[in-house]
Design goal:
Layout (H helix, E strand, L loop, with lengths): L1 H8 L10 H21 L7 H25 L5 H6 L7 H24 L3 E7 L6 E7 L3
Antiparallel strand pairs: 1-2
Amino acid sequence: MYYGLEALTHNLSEGTTVVVWVNFAVHSANSIVVWVDLLLCQPRSFSARAQRWTVLFVALYCIWIVRIKTVRGAFPYPFLDELAKTVPFPYNFLMVAAGGVCIIFTMFRLGRFLSGRITLSLGRAEDCDQMEVRGEIKVD
């Protein structure tokens, strides 16, 4: 997505003139969509199969990031280049990737634990023309 926007906007998400909507689209909009999806699409299983597919996607994305580093001479995320000043490549990248995988496993475990305990639904309130959000938290 980032490089597609870069091509369309001629490097306006970085550089001297930054277009606010490009930065929002790259860094925030996708996160908002994921959170809305997680909260409204019930039930979630957080199955081992979904976890394997997620780890595969992350591994392919890591390969893509290393490819960008090889072609451009710099990572697409500047903090990795900054980290390379103290921790040499590939150890800096492997350290961040391992941390990311740990976060994925932790989030899947948390998701399995919370699945069915927290629900959120969107609907119309009775005798009212307004939308309402209903939530429920089950405590065992």
